[in-house]
Write a structure and sequence with these properties.
By secondary structure, the protein is an alpha/beta fold. 36% of the residues lie in helices and 18% in strands. 36% of the residues are buried. Bound molecules: S-adenosylmethionine.
Length: 185
């Protein structure tokens, strides 16, 4: 039994270490930060954001906090998160279970963000280290032109955000459109 627990702890530690090395350690976005973005995020008119019914993908979703916040404001969305760190994913799955059917539209998946299919995403959420931005920009080239990319903390190099959301004691959040990544490809 204790060996079994040891293996679980080892898997949690190794997956967290790999995530930290790969793209970023688990640092959850503050609730006040999520609220500020949800209150101020401007969708394109073709997007239908105010009506809901769109797909949000969090690349490196942690415990899925961002997706739960989106699903609370827009209950008709599909919210999909990918993460390779086991502990936050487990916390997120427990939260989803405890919500019963409220968060049925939220899907938290164990998977590497670099393999995630984002070609149908309407909104992509990113809070990752800057060192991966060059590769990330290449990945974002498959996004639909109308899609909205939400980047927390550091802006992307050589791209002008269409909106910047700031608040006291909060990290800046930079908003881009999918079509900006087509121009770069
Ligand atoms: C700074 S946290 C952001 C968590 C969440 N998006 C939020 O804003 O609360 C970065 C997340 O990316 C995950 N991560 C790092 N590398 C990854 C990879 N290659 N594939 C999937 N997730 C990864 C980490 O495990 C961590 O949960």
């Amino acid at each position: 039994m204790s060996f079994f627990i040891f293996l679980i702890v080892l898997a949690i530690v190794i997956s967290a270490a790999y995530a930290g090395y790969s793209a970023a350690p688990w640092v959850p976005t503050k609730q006040s930060q999520r609220q500020l973005v949800l209150d101020n995020l401007q969708f394109p008119s073709s997007h239908g954001g105010a009506r809901g019914g769109f797909t949000v993908i969090d690349l490196g979703c942690g415990d899925g906090s961002w997706l739960f916040s989106f699903a609370t404001k827009y209950p008709n969305i599909q919210a999909i998160g990918y993460d390779i760190s086991l502990l936050p994913l487990l916390i997120g799955q427990i939260r989803k279970l405890l919500s019963f059917k409220k968060f049925a539209c939220v899907h938290l998946r164990f998977g590497n963000l670099w393999h995630a299919n984002i070609s149908q995403a309407d909104v992509v959420l990113i809070f990752l280290m800057r060192k991966i931005y060059p590769r990330l920009i290449t990945k974002l080239a498959v996004l639909p032109p109308h899609s909205t990319v939400v980047i927390e903390a550091w802006p992307l190099p050589n791209l002008t955000p269409i909106q910047v959301i700031t608040g006291p004691n909060l990290l800046p959040v930079y908003i881009y459109r999918g079509e900006q990544f087509h121009q770069r490809a």
